[in-house]
């Protein structure tokens, strides 16, 4: 059984990026140790406080969860008014943890499931208090960015993945709190479906029928079946953060993928510019522009990377090496255009440059390249056949 919960690689990667790129904004949002009397009054006016005298099982479950997570904090519990859907949420306070229940959730949970639900909510507090509130500051920054119409899409995609990462982290807190996978999934299912009786093992089998390598399509929470899959595979020591990232997609990168795509473009451009038939000053100058900021051409790292195979991604902050990521068709098309731009950057390279670029495409597994170049340059069938044959001959 996994006994500790640490920030996900995704959390650490985004934190590192924000500290480098948006340090002043991030520092301004670091939490201050102040209470919020307005929240206390709102809770007293509009909810039912679940005191220990009337709800000893709930308080015992909360203490069990806090102890399992290594948290020493006062916990208050409230039940919302009205007929909302079953749910629980953490209202983060500096000096205490406040868990708000809504709908008929409490009456459907046994003591172990209560511990799982409390563990989930308290894990949010654990994350927000790690590294003196560093992750809470990132959360606030991304929330503020999402509310601004001028925010670049990369920040919006980062926020989507960030909040899903936080839910996976909290799910791990639920598992650590109750100590049992089936119980954790059962509590998750009862919360999501509103059912009093559920079959967690059947849900885990359902999760195994899905290909989750394409990532979650959730906006704030991963799909429940994906969360169950992530818990099961986390226990088995597997990297499950493919749920957050999916394939590398040039059309919807987050901040980390944008940096990865810039680096990938720079390395690929350097490889192309040092290929026989394209090794000219004009091509080298064009390729150097893919560096950020533009600079001297880098040294290629040996064999050209194959883009028809999952791409190896470096680990973040000493985390385990993540699963290789495949490239979407849009990303492969982008790399084809990069190759074609360099192949035509210097008119003096002529057919030799085009043939060399087709050879690079074959080595890189960029099978759409010939069709794309044909469409853009308008080759005749005869000319295309000649160029293709020459490219095959240099393999």
From TrEMBL:
Q: Could you tell me the keywords of this UniProt record?
A: Hydrolase, Metal-binding, Metalloprotease, Protease, Zinc
Q: Would you say which domain of life the source belongs to?
A: Bacteria
User: Which positions fall inside the Peptidase M48 domain?
Assistant: 56-124
- Record has Protease as a keyword: yes
Which residue ranges traverse the bilayer? none
The record's listing under InterPro entries reads:
Peptidase_M48
**Which Pfam family, an example, fits this chain?**
Peptidase_M48
A GO molecular-function annotation? metal ion binding
The UniProt entry's sequence similarity note says: Belongs to the peptidase M48 family.
Cofactor binding mode and count? Binds 1 zinc ion per subunit.
Q: What is this protein called?
A: M48 family metalloprotease
Which GO BP terms apply?
A: proteolysis
Q: Which cofactor does it need?
A: Zn(2+)
């Amino acid at each position: 059984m996994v006994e500790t919960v640490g920030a996900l690689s995704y959390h650490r990667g985004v934190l590192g990026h924000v500290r480098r790129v948006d340090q002043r904004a991030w520092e301004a949002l670091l939490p201050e140790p102040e209470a919020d009397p307005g929240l206390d009054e709102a809770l007293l006016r509009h909810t039912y406080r679940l005191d220990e005298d009337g709800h000893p099982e709930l308080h015992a479950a909360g203490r069990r969860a806090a102890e399992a997570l290594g948290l020493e904090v006062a916990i208050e519990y409230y039940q919302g008014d009205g007929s909302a859907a079953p749910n629980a949420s953490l209202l983060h306070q500096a000096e205490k943890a406040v868990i708000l229940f809504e709908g008929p959730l409490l009456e459907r949970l046994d003591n172990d499931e209560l511990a799982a639900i409390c563990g989930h909510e308290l894990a949010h507090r654990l994350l927000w208090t790690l590294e003196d509130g560093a992750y809470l500051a990132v959360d606030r920054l991304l929330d503020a960015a999402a509310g601004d119409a001028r925010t670049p899409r990369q920040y919006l995609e980062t926020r989507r993945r960030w909040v899903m990462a936080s839910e996976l982290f909290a799910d791990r807190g639920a598992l650590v709190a109750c100590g049992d996978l089936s119980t954790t999934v059962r509590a998750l299912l009862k919360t999501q479906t509103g059912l009093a009786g559920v079959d967690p093992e059947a849900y885990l089998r359902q999760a195994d029928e899905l290909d989750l390598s394409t990532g979650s399509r959730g906006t704030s929470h991963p799909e429940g079946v994906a969360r169950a899959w992530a818990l099961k595979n986390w226990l088995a020591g597997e990297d499950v953060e493919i749920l957050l990232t999916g394939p590398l997609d040039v059309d919807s990168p987050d901040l980390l993928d944008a940096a990865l795509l810039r680096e990938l473009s720079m390395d690929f451009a350097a490889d192309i510019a040092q290929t026989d038939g394209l090794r000219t000053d004009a091509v080298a100058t064009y390729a150097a522009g893919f560096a950020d900021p533009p600079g001297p051409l880098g040294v290629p790292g040996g064999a050209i990377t194959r883009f028809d195979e999952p791409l190896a991604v470096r680990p973040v902050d000493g985390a385990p090496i993540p699963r290789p990521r495949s490239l979407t068709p849009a990303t492969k098309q982008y790399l084809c255009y990069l190759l074609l731009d360099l192949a035509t950057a210097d008119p003096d390279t002529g057919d030799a440059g085009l043939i060399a670029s087709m050879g690079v495409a074959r080595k890189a597994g960029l099978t759409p390249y010939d069709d794309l170049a044909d469409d853009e340059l308008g080759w005749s069938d005869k000319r295309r056949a000649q160029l293709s044959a020459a490219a095959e001959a240099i393999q």
